[in-house]
Design goal:
- The protein is globular.
- Helices cover 52% and strands 7% of the residues.
- The model has no long low-confidence stretch (mean pLDDT 97).
- Helix 4 (96-111) packs across helix 6 (160-170) and helix 6 packs antiparallel against helix 7 (174-190).
- The two termini are 23 Å apart.
- It is mainly alpha-helical.
- It is built from 12 helices and 7 strands.
- The longest helix has 21 residues, at 7-27.
- The structure holds glycine.
- Glycine is lined by residues 155, 217, 227, 339.
Length: 380
Protein backbone atom coordinates (compact mmCIF):
# COMPACT_ATOMS: atom_id res chain seq x y z
CA UNK A 1 0.00 0.00 0.00
CA UNK A 2 1.88 3.04 -1.25
CA UNK A 3 0.01 6.33 -1.20
CA UNK A 4 2.46 8.31 -3.31
CA UNK A 5 2.44 11.95 -2.32
CA UNK A 6 -0.19 12.29 0.46
CA UNK A 7 1.76 12.19 3.72
CA UNK A 8 -0.91 11.08 6.21
CA UNK A 9 -2.36 8.42 3.92
CA UNK A 10 0.37 5.79 4.43
CA UNK A 11 -0.26 5.80 8.16
CA UNK A 12 -4.02 5.80 7.65
CA UNK A 13 -3.86 2.78 5.32
CA UNK A 14 -1.56 0.87 7.65
CA UNK A 15 -3.79 1.53 10.67
CA UNK A 16 -6.89 0.55 8.70
CA UNK A 17 -5.35 -2.77 7.65
CA UNK A 18 -4.33 -3.54 11.26
CA UNK A 19 -7.85 -2.71 12.47
CA UNK A 20 -9.64 -4.92 9.93
CA UNK A 21 -7.31 -7.79 10.74
CA UNK A 22 -7.85 -7.28 14.47
CA UNK A 23 -11.63 -7.27 14.06
CA UNK A 24 -11.52 -10.50 12.04
CA UNK A 25 -9.35 -12.09 14.75
CA UNK A 26 -11.71 -10.90 17.49
CA UNK A 27 -14.95 -11.81 15.73
CA UNK A 28 -13.99 -15.17 14.24
CA UNK A 29 -16.87 -16.34 12.06
CA UNK A 30 -19.15 -13.67 13.49
CA UNK A 31 -20.12 -10.32 11.99
CA UNK A 32 -19.61 -6.89 13.44
CA UNK A 33 -22.85 -5.81 15.10
CA UNK A 34 -24.23 -2.39 14.13
CA UNK A 35 -22.12 -0.58 16.72
CA UNK A 36 -19.42 -1.17 19.28
CA UNK A 37 -19.72 -1.21 23.07
CA UNK A 38 -16.99 0.82 24.75
CA UNK A 39 -15.35 0.90 21.30
CA UNK A 40 -15.16 -2.89 20.91
CA UNK A 41 -17.36 -4.98 18.63
CA UNK A 42 -18.50 -8.38 19.93
CA UNK A 43 -19.26 -11.24 17.50
CA UNK A 44 -22.77 -11.01 16.11
CA UNK A 45 -25.04 -12.77 13.59
CA UNK A 46 -25.97 -11.78 10.06
CA UNK A 47 -29.24 -10.20 11.19
CA UNK A 48 -28.99 -6.39 11.02
CA UNK A 49 -29.10 -3.80 8.22
CA UNK A 50 -25.39 -3.17 8.69
CA UNK A 51 -23.79 -6.57 8.06
CA UNK A 52 -22.97 -5.94 4.41
CA UNK A 53 -20.71 -3.11 5.38
CA UNK A 54 -18.49 -5.36 7.49
CA UNK A 55 -18.05 -7.62 4.45
CA UNK A 56 -17.48 -4.49 2.37
CA UNK A 57 -14.68 -3.39 4.67
CA UNK A 58 -13.03 -6.79 4.18
CA UNK A 59 -13.45 -6.53 0.39
CA UNK A 60 -11.77 -3.14 0.35
CA UNK A 61 -8.94 -4.52 2.45
CA UNK A 62 -8.53 -7.27 -0.15
CA UNK A 63 -8.33 -4.65 -2.89
CA UNK A 64 -5.82 -2.60 -0.90
CA UNK A 65 -3.54 -5.50 -0.01
CA UNK A 66 -4.18 -8.27 -2.54
CA UNK A 67 -4.10 -10.65 0.45
CA UNK A 68 -6.21 -13.77 -0.23
CA UNK A 69 -6.95 -14.05 3.47
CA UNK A 70 -9.43 -11.17 3.06
CA UNK A 71 -10.89 -12.64 -0.13
CA UNK A 72 -11.60 -16.00 1.53
CA UNK A 73 -13.24 -14.33 4.50
CA UNK A 74 -15.43 -12.17 2.25
CA UNK A 75 -16.50 -15.21 0.21
CA UNK A 76 -17.52 -17.03 3.40
CA UNK A 77 -19.79 -14.10 4.13
CA UNK A 78 -21.36 -14.33 0.66
CA UNK A 79 -22.71 -17.81 1.51
CA UNK A 80 -24.29 -16.35 4.64
CA UNK A 81 -25.92 -13.52 2.63
CA UNK A 82 -27.26 -16.02 0.09
CA UNK A 83 -28.87 -18.04 2.88
CA UNK A 84 -30.29 -14.87 4.38
CA UNK A 85 -32.10 -13.75 1.23
CA UNK A 86 -33.21 -17.29 0.33
CA UNK A 87 -34.85 -17.69 3.74
CA UNK A 88 -35.90 -14.00 4.00
CA UNK A 89 -34.23 -13.96 7.42
CA UNK A 90 -34.41 -10.46 8.96
CA UNK A 91 -35.33 -9.09 5.53
CA UNK A 92 -38.43 -7.06 6.37
CA UNK A 93 -37.18 -3.64 5.29
CA UNK A 94 -35.66 -1.69 2.40
CA UNK A 95 -32.01 -2.12 3.43
CA UNK A 96 -31.12 -4.46 0.56
CA UNK A 97 -28.49 -2.12 -0.89
CA UNK A 98 -26.71 -1.66 2.42
CA UNK A 99 -26.70 -5.43 2.83
CA UNK A 100 -26.03 -6.73 -0.68
CA UNK A 101 -24.02 -4.08 -2.56
CA UNK A 102 -20.78 -4.08 -0.53
CA UNK A 103 -20.97 -7.84 0.05
CA UNK A 104 -22.52 -9.72 -2.89
CA UNK A 105 -22.34 -7.19 -5.75
CA UNK A 106 -18.74 -6.68 -4.66
CA UNK A 107 -18.05 -10.44 -4.68
CA UNK A 108 -19.42 -10.65 -8.22
CA UNK A 109 -17.32 -7.70 -9.38
CA UNK A 110 -14.12 -8.73 -7.58
CA UNK A 111 -14.20 -12.53 -7.62
CA UNK A 112 -16.80 -13.28 -10.31
CA UNK A 113 -18.87 -15.01 -7.62
CA UNK A 114 -22.01 -16.53 -9.14
CA UNK A 115 -23.48 -16.95 -5.67
CA UNK A 116 -22.90 -13.26 -5.00
CA UNK A 117 -24.62 -12.30 -8.24
CA UNK A 118 -27.63 -14.56 -7.57
CA UNK A 119 -28.03 -13.30 -4.02
CA UNK A 120 -27.78 -9.64 -5.06
CA UNK A 121 -30.33 -10.07 -7.89
CA UNK A 122 -32.68 -11.81 -5.42
CA UNK A 123 -32.23 -8.94 -2.95
CA UNK A 124 -33.03 -6.45 -5.73
CA UNK A 125 -36.19 -8.45 -6.44
CA UNK A 126 -37.22 -8.24 -2.81
CA UNK A 127 -36.57 -4.48 -2.81
CA UNK A 128 -38.84 -4.14 -5.87
CA UNK A 129 -41.62 -5.82 -3.89
CA UNK A 130 -41.59 -2.90 -1.46
CA UNK A 131 -42.37 -0.34 -4.16
CA UNK A 132 -45.72 1.35 -3.62
CA UNK A 133 -47.45 2.49 -6.81
CA UNK A 134 -49.66 4.72 -4.68
CA UNK A 135 -47.10 7.40 -3.94
CA UNK A 136 -44.40 5.84 -6.14
CA UNK A 137 -41.85 5.12 -3.43
CA UNK A 138 -40.10 2.18 -1.76
CA UNK A 139 -41.57 1.59 1.70
CA UNK A 140 -38.78 1.65 4.26
CA UNK A 141 -39.97 -0.27 7.27
CA UNK A 142 -42.65 -2.68 8.44
CA UNK A 143 -44.98 -5.02 6.57
CA UNK A 144 -45.51 -3.92 2.97
CA UNK A 145 -48.64 -1.75 2.76
CA UNK A 146 -48.93 -1.26 6.52
CA UNK A 147 -50.82 2.04 6.94
CA UNK A 148 -48.70 3.10 9.94
CA UNK A 149 -45.50 2.50 7.98
CA UNK A 150 -46.52 4.13 4.71
CA UNK A 151 -43.38 6.23 4.31
CA UNK A 152 -39.98 6.52 2.70
CA UNK A 153 -36.71 7.50 4.37
CA UNK A 154 -33.76 9.39 2.90
CA UNK A 155 -31.37 6.52 3.70
CA UNK A 156 -32.97 4.53 0.84
CA UNK A 157 -31.04 6.61 -1.68
CA UNK A 158 -28.19 4.20 -0.86
CA UNK A 159 -30.38 1.16 -1.58
CA UNK A 160 -31.53 2.11 -5.07
CA UNK A 161 -28.07 1.68 -6.69
CA UNK A 162 -28.69 -2.07 -6.20
CA UNK A 163 -31.66 -1.66 -8.55
CA UNK A 164 -29.64 0.25 -11.15
CA UNK A 165 -27.05 -2.52 -10.97
CA UNK A 166 -29.73 -5.22 -11.28
CA UNK A 167 -31.02 -3.60 -14.47
CA UNK A 168 -27.57 -3.56 -15.97
CA UNK A 169 -26.84 -7.18 -15.02
CA UNK A 170 -30.20 -8.71 -15.99
CA UNK A 171 -31.07 -6.45 -18.92
CA UNK A 172 -34.47 -5.82 -17.31
CA UNK A 173 -35.14 -2.06 -17.25
CA UNK A 174 -37.87 -2.30 -14.57
CA UNK A 175 -35.40 -2.20 -11.69
CA UNK A 176 -33.90 1.07 -12.91
CA UNK A 177 -37.35 2.57 -13.51
CA UNK A 178 -38.38 1.87 -9.93
CA UNK A 179 -35.08 3.30 -8.68
CA UNK A 180 -35.61 6.53 -10.59
CA UNK A 181 -39.27 6.81 -9.54
CA UNK A 182 -38.23 6.41 -5.92
CA UNK A 183 -35.42 8.95 -6.32
CA UNK A 184 -37.76 11.56 -7.83
CA UNK A 185 -40.46 11.03 -5.19
CA UNK A 186 -37.91 11.19 -2.38
CA UNK A 187 -36.32 14.38 -3.55
CA UNK A 188 -39.64 16.11 -4.19
CA UNK A 189 -40.55 15.42 -0.55
CA UNK A 190 -37.46 15.41 1.62
CA UNK A 191 -35.41 18.28 0.17
CA UNK A 192 -36.39 21.54 1.84
CA UNK A 193 -36.07 25.05 0.41
CA UNK A 194 -33.00 25.72 2.58
CA UNK A 195 -31.34 22.53 1.15
CA UNK A 196 -31.62 20.58 4.40
CA UNK A 197 -33.57 17.30 4.37
CA UNK A 198 -36.32 15.49 6.22
CA UNK A 199 -35.40 12.04 7.49
CA UNK A 200 -38.71 10.32 6.68
CA UNK A 201 -41.84 11.28 4.74
CA UNK A 202 -45.37 9.86 5.06
CA UNK A 203 -47.87 9.28 2.27
CA UNK A 204 -51.61 8.71 2.26
CA UNK A 205 -52.03 4.95 1.71
CA UNK A 206 -55.37 5.45 -0.04
CA UNK A 207 -54.43 8.20 -2.48
CA UNK A 208 -50.61 8.16 -2.50
CA UNK A 209 -50.55 11.90 -1.72
CA UNK A 210 -47.42 13.10 0.15
CA UNK A 211 -48.42 14.07 3.70
CA UNK A 212 -45.64 15.31 5.98
CA UNK A 213 -42.03 14.84 7.07
CA UNK A 214 -41.11 13.30 10.41
CA UNK A 215 -37.75 12.49 11.94
CA UNK A 216 -36.81 9.21 13.54
CA UNK A 217 -33.10 9.63 14.26
CA UNK A 218 -32.73 13.40 13.94
CA UNK A 219 -33.23 15.83 16.80
CA UNK A 220 -36.69 17.03 15.71
CA UNK A 221 -38.96 16.85 12.69
CA UNK A 222 -37.67 20.08 11.14
CA UNK A 223 -33.98 19.68 11.94
CA UNK A 224 -31.26 18.32 9.64
CA UNK A 225 -30.04 14.93 10.88
CA UNK A 226 -26.37 14.91 9.88
CA UNK A 227 -26.27 11.34 8.62
CA UNK A 228 -29.51 11.77 6.68
CA UNK A 229 -28.01 14.79 4.95
CA UNK A 230 -24.94 12.66 4.12
CA UNK A 231 -27.13 9.87 2.70
CA UNK A 232 -28.63 12.57 0.46
CA UNK A 233 -25.18 13.65 -0.74
CA UNK A 234 -23.86 10.20 -1.54
CA UNK A 235 -27.21 8.87 -2.78
CA UNK A 236 -27.60 11.70 -5.29
CA UNK A 237 -24.00 11.29 -6.46
CA UNK A 238 -24.69 7.62 -7.19
CA UNK A 239 -28.00 8.42 -8.94
CA UNK A 240 -26.06 10.87 -11.08
CA UNK A 241 -23.47 8.22 -11.95
CA UNK A 242 -26.13 5.75 -13.07
CA UNK A 243 -28.46 8.17 -14.87
CA UNK A 244 -26.60 11.42 -15.64
CA UNK A 245 -29.74 13.18 -14.38
CA UNK A 246 -29.40 16.97 -14.03
CA UNK A 247 -31.79 16.77 -11.06
CA UNK A 248 -29.44 14.35 -9.27
CA UNK A 249 -26.54 16.75 -9.81
CA UNK A 250 -28.58 19.65 -8.49
CA UNK A 251 -29.58 17.64 -5.40
CA UNK A 252 -25.95 16.69 -4.82
CA UNK A 253 -24.83 20.33 -4.98
CA UNK A 254 -27.61 21.55 -2.70
CA UNK A 255 -27.32 18.86 -0.02
CA UNK A 256 -23.52 19.15 -0.02
CA UNK A 257 -23.63 22.93 0.20
CA UNK A 258 -25.86 22.74 3.28
CA UNK A 259 -23.61 20.08 4.85
CA UNK A 260 -20.38 22.02 4.33
CA UNK A 261 -21.87 25.38 5.42
CA UNK A 262 -23.07 23.84 8.68
CA UNK A 263 -19.92 21.94 9.66
CA UNK A 264 -18.52 23.21 12.96
CA UNK A 265 -15.11 24.92 13.01
CA UNK A 266 -13.81 21.67 14.53
CA UNK A 267 -15.00 19.93 11.30
CA UNK A 268 -16.47 16.65 12.65
CA UNK A 269 -20.25 17.19 12.51
CA UNK A 270 -22.45 16.85 15.55
CA UNK A 271 -25.08 14.13 15.12
CA UNK A 272 -27.67 16.73 14.13
CA UNK A 273 -27.04 20.15 12.58
CA UNK A 274 -29.12 21.68 15.39
CA UNK A 275 -25.85 21.46 17.35
CA UNK A 276 -22.59 23.21 16.64
CA UNK A 277 -19.38 24.48 18.24
CA UNK A 278 -19.65 24.59 22.02
CA UNK A 279 -22.39 21.95 22.25
CA UNK A 280 -21.87 19.02 24.60
CA UNK A 281 -23.81 16.75 22.23
CA UNK A 282 -21.80 13.92 20.59
CA UNK A 283 -20.48 14.00 17.03
CA UNK A 284 -21.27 11.58 14.25
CA UNK A 285 -18.01 10.81 12.44
CA UNK A 286 -19.87 8.39 10.15
CA UNK A 287 -21.84 11.27 8.60
CA UNK A 288 -18.60 12.88 7.48
CA UNK A 289 -17.20 9.60 6.13
CA UNK A 290 -20.35 9.10 4.01
CA UNK A 291 -20.28 12.68 2.71
CA UNK A 292 -16.59 12.37 1.81
CA UNK A 293 -17.32 9.25 -0.27
CA UNK A 294 -20.13 11.09 -2.07
CA UNK A 295 -17.79 14.00 -2.82
CA UNK A 296 -15.08 11.68 -4.14
CA UNK A 297 -17.62 9.85 -6.30
CA UNK A 298 -18.82 13.10 -7.84
CA UNK A 299 -15.28 14.48 -8.15
CA UNK A 300 -14.43 11.44 -10.28
CA UNK A 301 -17.58 11.74 -12.38
CA UNK A 302 -17.08 15.48 -13.04
CA UNK A 303 -13.28 15.41 -13.04
CA UNK A 304 -13.45 18.15 -10.41
CA UNK A 305 -10.03 18.57 -8.75
CA UNK A 306 -11.29 21.20 -6.28
CA UNK A 307 -14.06 18.96 -4.97
CA UNK A 308 -11.60 16.11 -4.65
CA UNK A 309 -9.12 18.28 -2.72
CA UNK A 310 -11.85 19.35 -0.28
CA UNK A 311 -12.88 15.73 0.27
CA UNK A 312 -9.28 14.62 0.83
CA UNK A 313 -8.75 17.39 3.37
CA UNK A 314 -11.94 16.40 5.25
CA UNK A 315 -10.81 12.77 5.26
CA UNK A 316 -7.44 13.79 6.66
CA UNK A 317 -9.24 15.49 9.55
CA UNK A 318 -11.35 12.38 10.02
CA UNK A 319 -8.18 10.32 10.21
CA UNK A 320 -6.48 12.68 12.64
CA UNK A 321 -9.45 13.17 14.98
CA UNK A 322 -11.41 9.92 14.79
CA UNK A 323 -9.47 7.02 13.28
CA UNK A 324 -8.20 4.29 15.59
CA UNK A 325 -4.40 4.22 15.60
CA UNK A 326 -3.90 1.84 18.51
CA UNK A 327 -5.68 -1.54 18.41
CA UNK A 328 -5.60 -1.79 22.19
CA UNK A 329 -8.28 0.91 22.45
CA UNK A 330 -10.72 -0.46 19.84
CA UNK A 331 -11.29 -3.11 17.19
CA UNK A 332 -13.14 -0.60 14.99
CA UNK A 333 -11.88 1.92 12.46
CA UNK A 334 -13.62 5.16 13.34
CA UNK A 335 -14.40 6.45 16.82
CA UNK A 336 -17.10 8.99 17.74
CA UNK A 337 -20.11 7.87 15.77
CA UNK A 338 -23.77 7.97 16.81
CA UNK A 339 -26.34 5.41 15.75
CA UNK A 340 -29.40 6.89 17.55
CA UNK A 341 -29.69 9.60 20.15
CA UNK A 342 -32.85 10.00 22.24
CA UNK A 343 -34.11 13.55 22.68
CA UNK A 344 -37.44 14.95 23.94
CA UNK A 345 -38.36 15.73 20.32
CA UNK A 346 -37.71 12.41 18.57
CA UNK A 347 -38.89 8.82 18.96
CA UNK A 348 -35.42 7.20 18.87
CA UNK A 349 -33.68 5.41 21.73
CA UNK A 350 -30.06 5.84 22.73
CA UNK A 351 -27.96 3.36 20.77
CA UNK A 352 -24.29 3.39 19.85
CA UNK A 353 -23.75 6.91 21.18
CA UNK A 354 -20.10 7.99 20.85
CA UNK A 355 -19.15 4.54 19.56
CA UNK A 356 -17.72 2.99 16.41
CA UNK A 357 -20.32 1.78 13.96
CA UNK A 358 -20.10 -0.66 11.07
CA UNK A 359 -21.04 1.83 8.36
CA UNK A 360 -18.69 4.52 9.68
CA UNK A 361 -15.84 1.99 9.52
CA UNK A 362 -16.85 0.95 6.00
CA UNK A 363 -17.23 4.42 4.49
CA UNK A 364 -13.98 5.53 6.09
CA UNK A 365 -12.01 2.71 4.41
CA UNK A 366 -13.95 3.29 1.19
CA UNK A 367 -12.81 6.92 1.32
CA UNK A 368 -9.19 5.81 1.80
CA UNK A 369 -9.50 3.48 -1.17
CA UNK A 370 -11.03 6.24 -3.29
CA UNK A 371 -8.22 8.62 -2.34
CA UNK A 372 -5.41 6.21 -3.15
CA UNK A 373 -7.10 4.98 -6.37
CA UNK A 374 -8.78 7.91 -8.18
CA UNK A 375 -11.44 6.68 -10.57
CA UNK A 376 -12.01 3.48 -8.55
CA UNK A 377 -15.58 2.22 -8.87
CA UNK A 378 -17.22 1.47 -5.53
CA UNK A 379 -19.54 -1.49 -4.98
CA UNK A 380 -22.73 0.65 -4.95
N1 LIG B 1 -29.83 3.63 7.69
C1 LIG B 1 -29.98 3.74 9.09
C2 LIG B 1 -29.08 4.74 9.70
O1 LIG B 1 -28.43 5.51 9.03
O2 LIG B 1 -29.02 4.73 10.92
Amino acid sequence: MDSGCIGWLDEALTCARVQTRKAIDDLGNGFKPSHSTDNFYQPSGNDEWTNGMWTGEINIMYELTGDDFFKQKALEHVCSFKKRIDSLYCINNHDMGFLYSPSCVAAYKLYNSGTGKEAAVAAAGYLMSRFQEKGRFIQAWGPVGDRNNYRLIIDCLMNIPLLFWASSITGDPRYGRVAMAHFDTSINCVLRDDDSTFHTYYFDPDTGMPLYGVTHQGNRNDSAWSRGQAWGIYGSALAYRYTGSARALEVFNRTLDFFLRHLPASVIPYWDFDFSDGSSEPRDSSALAIAVCGMLEMADDLNDAGLRATAVSLCETLFKKCAVKDPSISNGQLLHGVYCRKTPTNDARNRGVDECNTWGDYFYVEALKRIISPGWRAYW
